Amino acid sequence: MRKVRVRFAPSPTGPLHIGGVRTALYNYLFARQNGGDMILRIEDTDQTRFVPGAEDYIIEALDWLGIKFDEGVHLGGNYGPYRQSDRKPLYRQYADQLLRDGWAYYAFDKPEALDAKRKEYESQKKTFQYDCTTRLSMENSLSLPADEVSRRIDSGEPYVVRFKFPEDLDITVHDLIRGDVTMNSRLLDDKVLFKSDGMPTYHLANIVDDHLMEVSHVIRGEEWLPSAPLHVMLYRAFGWEDTMPQFAHLPLLLKPDGNGKLSKRDGDRLGFPVFPLDWHNPETGEISSGYRERGYLPEAVVNMLALLGWNPGNDQELMSMDELIRLFSIEHISKSGAKFNIEKAKWFNHEYLQKCSDERIAEMFLPQLKEHGIDAPMDYVVKVCGMMKERISFPSELWDQTHYFFVAPTEYDPKAVSKRWKPGMTTHMAKVIEILNTVPFQYDAIHQALLEDYIKGNELNMGQIMNSLRLAVVGTTVGPDMLTLVMTIGKEETIARVQRAIDTIGEIEN
RNA sequence: GGUCCGUUCGUCUAGUUGGCCUAGGACGUAAGAUUUUCAUUCUUAAAAUCGCGGGUUCGAAUCCCGCACGGACUACCA
Questions:
Q1: Is the pTM higher than 0.90?
Q2: Which of A103, A275, A337, A362 could form a disulfide with A254 if both were Cys (CB 3.0 to 4.6 A apart)?
Q3: Does the CB of A262 sit below 7 A from strand B?
Q4: Which residues share a beta bridge with A254?
Q5: Closest residue to B69 by CA to C1' distance?
Q6: Strand nucleotide closest to residue A42 (CA to C1')
Q7: ipTM of the complex
Q8: Residues A303-327: pLDDT tens digits?
Q9: Residue at A201 is within a domain
Q10: Does residue A456 reach within 7 angstroms of strand B, measured from its CB?
Q11: Active site positions of A, annotated
Q12: Do strands A287-288 and A279-280 pair parallel, antiparallel, or not at all (unpaired)?
């Protein structure tokens, strides 16, 4: 049994899409579970699509989520370099090998000529495909005389190298998720392996690199399934079939409404992040929002993503990274695409927020407090966070839920006033102040004096009085247990707030 | 158009060797309980004739065939 080695191989063309994050996660879980290696390889063979900052973004995003690598561009390793542009000199010899063995051929067709050909076919409602049925009518080393071919190459005419598919061969790809998938070579096109700019295409580079890096399992998105037969044929052509990696093609992540692949635009449209981190487009200045900046916890994102297309085979839903590593199995990956569900993502975040220490939540709350000009003692902030965290799904909701712990109300919700502040209330509130002033400032003592002796003892309306007190202290009718709130903000502050309410709202007639 | 992949509650899904499935769980939704309010929490409910149609079988969500629908791919992009 060969050592498990998997790779995550993104293209640095922009921010890492959440679907890509899931692919990375599954690779990571599989590697860790099997004591294998996780490799980060950058696939930047298309120089025209290079985006500055994308590579760093990918590394930072995966690091934030706790997806760690054993080898990669940022770490090095024994199989480097790990960036395909840095491996450029390596690929030529493999293209030559294919050329020599008759698995590939030179093609001189200009891009414009190919475009024209496609248009021509299109006008006849057909699709042009560069394959065994058309290649002899194109300009390549199969259709041209040998001396002409060498003349063109010697004169520096640009060319590409294309794979030469056999004419009628059933090619079977064994997929760990879908089983055997068979396609006939006659229907496959002669893909370009080596471009005229001297770089390999994805197809060549990924086979060469996976082989050289001794990759054992290729876990990637379903969009690669149609080109998998090409990849299998390349292993065969190189004579590497006995060490060919095993394939697993992951189902797609679909948009929450309607059908189709989840895209950047869906996030903007429906108001949820499609990227792990905020991304500032260096060219347009446009900002795409990320999970991290929206207040999602990395462990919540990981858990949610893990379950989008995989399950442990039972009802368990909350799982830490360690549990995921233990429980993960390729057999339990589903075959069908998963629609992204924003409500469930929120729920996961709520659950993980509850598991957070009060200190960690307080830490996340600090910037908001600062924004509102609050400079409260840390232990007080921690206490408030601990008391209020169960009511929120995101740290960003904290200020809305807790501002009255830090700032006294300056106005009173009119609806609450008319509903709760009944005639005689100023007298009751004055009594509250009196109790606070005379009874020891302890929860039980005040509970006894106010709730039991005063309210119940005089058969007063509990809801009416307690809610009026809340109105006085909070400004509206929401919040935690009233006495806990009082104990938290303190005796002096409570009395001040109640007095202020008496002065501001005053006595209600009738 | 062609090729390939897929199809269980609104959504994520359990179901892997056909019988314990009168199809289970979770999110969301609704109702109720608790509470001094709101939220939390708890309980309950509604919700999939397992895409449709045929077979095979004593028995099929599970196996086979056909159809429909959806998606991916179809670049000198990955």
A1: yes
A2: A337
A3: no
A4: A261, A339
A5: A259
A6: B78
A7: 0.94
A8: 999 999 999 988 899 999 999 999 9
A9: no
A10: no
A11: 264
A12: antiparallel
